[in-house]
Amino acid sequence: QVQLVESGGGLVQAGGSLRVSCVASGSIFSINDMGWYRQAPGKQRELVARITSVDTTNYADSVKGRFAISRDNAKNTVYLQMNSLKPEDTAVYFCYMEVATRTSTWLFRERWGQGTQVTVSS
Asked: CA quadruple 52, 37, 107, 27: dihedral positive or negative?
């Protein structure tokens, strides 16, 4: 069974920085795309950033120039560095990964973490 666990969330003042991390564990053969979604109260779930297996990145317009996604394949980990944080960045941040297990190496499934709260005060 594959599990994803986020960490690094918390309370930060506007203009500050946080780095959230997501580590996958279990019987992992390969991981393709990794990324981060967020959901704020009263808003739709939003794709914040994604990174492919060849390190191509995409960002939501609202975070371009402020956030940076990266990955460490040896550690099955994806990071999201968040700089110049704004109150509107407040949300629960969820990581996802497209994972193939060692028992089904041809089958990639989306796996999700439980989320980590990021709160930006004004």
From this structure: positive
Structure token digits, residue 119: 């709160």
- Interval 27-72: pLDDT, tens: 999 999 999 999 999 999 999 999 999 999 999 999 999 999 999 9
- The closest of 84, 91, 77 to 28, measured between CA atoms, is 77
Q: Amino acid identity, residue 34?
A: M
Please report how many Cα atoms fall inside a 13 Å half-sphere around the Cα of residue 36, on the Cβ side. 36
Cα radius of gyration (the chain): 14
According to the model, what pLDDT value does residue 1 have? Answer: 85
Instruction: Report, as an integer, the average pLDDT of 117-121.
Output: 98
> Which residues are CB-neighbours of 39 under 8 A, at least 6 positions away?
45, 46, 91, 92, 94
Q: Provide the 8-state DSSP code for 73.
A: G
* Type of residue at 101: T
